[in-house]
Structure formats: structure tokens, C-alpha cells
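lol forgot to send this yesterday, sorry. C-alpha cells for the thing we talked abt
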């Protein structure tokens, strides 16, 4: 059984039964993994457990029973109200997951040369944007109807880690019950979302100096007077690279009006060659910088990021004009700013 990033406990299945016992500081999500070969897992949970060998649930102050006629995927979990909440959320997210599966199946069926075509990438970017919006809408609806559930707080934390819209996070935090808002994790999340140095629309974009593939140092200040899309991504991030075609369209339409793009990769130093190959293969517009190439000036920390893709649209005076703009949303913002 895992919670957080470490093994919480292990148990041997004996005549169809097993048991765990222990304490946690607060209710939290855990993953129960069954290893039919009887070997102890490594220090971290496998990223994709085999079908039927894992089940998510919540650890809380209760006697929780897991029962199944065959595998963990068909197990019923009783005695845990928080797990009931979490399973209700998973049921609500099922249509979103079907859309993700369909999109990935289409990607697998498509020949590699067709995957690089602008029309394919644009369609995939539009699908991803729609899926992301549907996921956020479902999570927000769950949070508003489960105001006192730590599951809502966990979902809100996940949303804050992958999106730069801190105003939405703050609004949903206020939708939580007063009791939950006063909890330590909620106060920490509120501080992170409302921190005075956290970049948001209307704030000054943090300065940085990073290196391009040739080792030339580039700063945000070099682009003073321009409208710049600061795009954070990575060579291994398929969602990031899927937006390249849409950004190329925006670049072609507005470059002559003072628009430019700064692509910042969060690839590690040992992945420098992989990053350079991705840049050469995709040919995305704008300058390309490696965030790990200059540890003293890393943009990742200055922009308080915890996931990619994320972007910031910075105006000529250095003020952030938009956050996480993709596809038509980016084109509309540029049309408004560069008329």
C-alpha cells in the first residue's frame, strides 16, 4: 500500500485475507497494489499498475473493508466515507476518461508522418482543450457539492498544480466549508494561490536569464516592448508538443505586429540532447531556452510552476495579460492586444 511517494505498509495474502493497521496524520489518498508474484515492490509505485492489480482509496480513521471475487479492479470498499466521495468523483469523470481514451486510440492508429501534420496537431490540441475544460468543470462541480470533504481539497490542490488560474483556485477555496478552509493544507494552498509574488494576470512577469541551444543567454528583458508568449513545456510532454501547430498559427498571424514566443523547457541537464532533438524535430516558433542550464536564474521557481504545459502572455510593459491561453483563446487575446 502506497500513500504519498513511499510504501506505507505491506501484507501477505493468506487464504484470501489480508490486513493493514496504522495511523496517518490526516485523511489522505492511498493506492492498494496487489503483486501476484509475491515480491515486495520498489521504493515508488509503478506508474501504470497492471489492470486489475491496483485500487485507489482513502485512509481515514475507520475500519475499511476491501472485498473482491477476483481482482482489485472489481473490489468493493466499505467503511470509508471519503472513499465513497472519491469513487463518486471517478464516476463523474468517467465520460472525460472515455474522451481521453478515444483521443489516445486515434493517436495510436495514426501514422507517425500524419501526426506531424498541422491539421492533426490542431485537432488534437482542440480535443485536449475540450477535455481539460470538461475535467475542470467536473472537478469544480464536485468541490461545490462536497464542501466539507478532504477529497475536494485534494482535487483543488491538483488543479492548482497544473493550472495557472489562481483566481479560480481562490474562488473554489472559498466554496469549501469554514472548517475545511481552516485546515492546515487549505491555508497552505490559499497562501500559495494568493501569494504576492505568484505571477497572475495584472502582475509583473518575473525576470530570468536562460540559455538557448547554442549557449547564448536570453532574458525576458530582451523582449521589452513586445507581446510575448512565455511557454513552459518539456520534450517528454506530449500535451505540450501537441500545441505547437496552434502556436505556429498565432506566430504567423501576429509576428509582424510585435508578437514573439519564448519556449522554456524544464528538461533536466542530462536530457539536453533529447530536448535539442525535440526542438529540431518540431520546429516550433520562437526562441528555445533550457531552464536547468542556469540554476541561479531558473524560471520554473520564479513562476511557481508545478506542472506543464503552462503559459503566460506578457504585454510590452512586462505585465501578464493572460494565463494558459491555447488555440482560439490565444488568438482572441492577441487580436484584442494587437489590433
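and heres what i got for the seq, position by position
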Amino acid at each position: 500500500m502506497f500513500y504519498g511517494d513511499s510504501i506505507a505498509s505491506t501484507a501477505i495474502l493468506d487464504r484470501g485475507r489480508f490486513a493493514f493497521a496504522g495511523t496517518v496524520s490526516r485523511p489522505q489518498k492511498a493506492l492498494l497494489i496487489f503483486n501476484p508474484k509475491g515480491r515486495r515492490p520498489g521504493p515508488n509505485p509503478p506508474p501504470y499498475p497492471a489492470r486489475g492489480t491496483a485500487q485507489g482509496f482513502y485512509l481515514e480513521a475507520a475500519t475499511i473493508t476491501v472485498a473482491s471475487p477476483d481482482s482489485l479492479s472489481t473490489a468493493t470498499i466499505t467503511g470509508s466515507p471519503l472513499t465513497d466521495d472519491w469513487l463518486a468523483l471517478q464516476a463523474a469523470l468517467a465520460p472525460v476518461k472515455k474522451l481521453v481514451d478515444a483521443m489516445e486510440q486515434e493517436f495510436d492508429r495514426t501514422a507517425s508522418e500524419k501526426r506531424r501534420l498541422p491539421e492533426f496537431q490542431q485537432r488534437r490540441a482542440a480535443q485536449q482543450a475540450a477535455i481539460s475544460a470538461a475535467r475542470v468543470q467536473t472537478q469544480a462541480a464536485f468541490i461545490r457539492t462536497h464542501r466539507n470533504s478532504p477529497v475536494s481539497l485534494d482535487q483543488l490542490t491538483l488543479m492548482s498544480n497544473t493550472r495557472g488560474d489562481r483566481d479560480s483556485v481562490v474562488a473554489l477555496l472559498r466554496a469549501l466549508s469554514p472548517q475545511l478552509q481552516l485546515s492546515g493544507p487549505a491555508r497552505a494552498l490559499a497562501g500559495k494561490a494568493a501569494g504576492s509574488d505568484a505571477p497572475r494576470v495584472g502582475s509583473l512577469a518575473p525576470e530570468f536569464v536562460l540559455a538557448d541551444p547554442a549557449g547564448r543567454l536570453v532574458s525576458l528583458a530582451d523582449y521589452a516592448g513586445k507581446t510575448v508568449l512565455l511557454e513552459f513545456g518539456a520534450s517528454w510532454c506530449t500535451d505540450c508538443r501537441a500545441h505547437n501547430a496552434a502556436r505556429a498559427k498565432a506566430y504567423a498571424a501576429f509576428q509582424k505586429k510585435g508578437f514573439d514566443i519564448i519556449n522554456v523547457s524544464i528538461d533536466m541537464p542530462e536530457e539536453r540532447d533529447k530536448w535539442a532533438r525535440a526542438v529540431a524535430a518540431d520546429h516550433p516558433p520562437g526562441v528555445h531556452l533550457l531552464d536547468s542550464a542556469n540554476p541561479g536564474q531558473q524560471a520554473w521557481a520564479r513562476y511557481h510552476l508545478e506542472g506543464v504545459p503552462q503559459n503566460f502572455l506578457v504585454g510590452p510593459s512586462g505585465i501578464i495579460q493572460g494565463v494558459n491561453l491555447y488555440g482560439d483563446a490565444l488568438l482572441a487575446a492577441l487580436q484584442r492586444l494587437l489590433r
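Confidence is low (pLDDT under 50) at residues 1-7, 40-49. anyway ping me if u want another try
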